[in-house]
Design goal:
The protein contains eleven helices and 14 strands. It is an alpha/beta fold. The chain has three domains: 3-83, Orthogonal Bundle (Arc Repressor Mutant, subunit A); 92-160 and 267-300, Periplasmic binding protein-like II (D-Maltodextrin-Binding Protein, domain 2); 164-257, Periplasmic binding protein-like II (D-Maltodextrin-Binding Protein, domain 2), CATH 3.40.190.10. The strands form five sheets. Strands 4-3-5-14-6 form a five-stranded mixed sheet. A three-stranded antiparallel sheet has the order 12-7-13. A two-stranded antiparallel sheet has the order 1-2.
């Protein structure tokens, strides 16, 4: 049995949810694919799929084998592309995951230029704020802005710093009897990002290095940074954002930065990708492009 071909067939069956769909995609018969998977199970001594008349379900052994299949097949594909002369110009589908705010505010600045340069690529974009399992979901590259990277087998390439700042609308500030200071900050409502463990709590470091923790009342909370941005522009309270999220609103006066001498824990824009000896040309092309673009982030200019 051609084990490599059988692994490809098994992966197609899992990812397309049925032998029929996988067979149609591969231009093979249902019988051939079914025989390949059964031979794999016989060779491995483990059942990989639970089959019913309505659906297929991975067994525990099947899920483990699938993860290894994806890694091995992707590495083989990357190695083949890297060694092939005609693949020096990246091609194929590039699966990119970004957070929702980053996708809405940043992609329009650099993605058109990237697509124009690499015309052989098709971009499959996923905008989500949830945790992404890159291997299970077939993601080639993930862009995230964070102050903490969990332990994982992913490679993290630093692209740019992302300062976190306090902002409010001029309309909100005009209604106040006194100016906002570090001492009275806790009297004002904080528009909280409720995906955080403590959405109403701020950690601040003053000009002299003194640290302060401020617990602020809640008026509006949301699981969307863009919704909180709209609430801040609407004058509903104070908000804490990565500067890239409010850069345009600061420039045109819709928002005003507060307490510029006080800092919050800094964050970083990372490019994350699965560890591999062979990096696919399409991934390397995007990494190099992003590294060059973010040498001078627009929000720092």
């Amino acid at each position: 049995m051609d084990q490599f071909s059988a692994m490809q067939s098994f992966r197609r069956v899992v990812e397309h949810g049925s032998f029929s769909a996988a067979a149609a995609l591969a231009g093979q018969s249902h019988t051939v694919l079914s025989r390949q998977v059964k031979n794999l199970e016989r060779q491995l001594g483990s059942q990989l799929l639970n089959r019913t008349t309505r659906r297929l379900q991975l067994t525990e052994a099947g899920a483990l084998f699938y993860r290894h299949c994806v890694q091995i097949l992707d590495q083989m594909e990357a190695m083949t592309l890297e060694l092939s002369e005609h693949q020096q110009q990246p091609s194929g589908t590039l699966r990119l995951s970004v957070s929702s705010a980053f996708g809405e505010l940043e992609l329009g600045h650099w993605l058109p230029g990237f697509v124009e340069r690499f015309t052989g690529l098709q971009i499959e974009l996923s905008c989500t704020d949830r945790f992404v399992d890159m291997l299970d979901e077939g993601i080639d590259l993930c862009l995230r802005v964070t102050d903490h990277l969990p332990d994982s087998n992913l490679v993290a390439r630093t692209l740019a710093p992302s300062e976190v700042i306090l902002v409010a609308a001029a309309s909100y500030l005009k209604r106040l009897p006194t100016a906002i200071t570090a001492d009275n900050l806790g009297e004002h409502p904080l528009l909280g990002y409720n995906r955080l463990a403590q959405p109403q709590r701020l950690q601040l470091v003053g000009p002299s290095g003194s640290q302060r923790e401020v617990l602020m009342p809640s008026r509006v909370s949301a699981n969307s940074p863009m919704a909180l941005r709209a609430a801040a522009i609407g004058g509903l309270g104070i908000a804490s954002f990565d500067r890239f999220i409010v850069h345009d609103a600061l420039q045109d006066g819709r928002l005003v930065q507060l307490l510029p001498d006080w800092q919050q824990p800094a964050r970083t824009l990372y490019a994350l990708y699965p560890q591999s000896r062979y990096l696919a040309p399409k991934v390397r092309a995007l990494l190099d492009y992003l590294q060059d673009y973010y040498r001078a982030p627009r929000w720092l200019m």
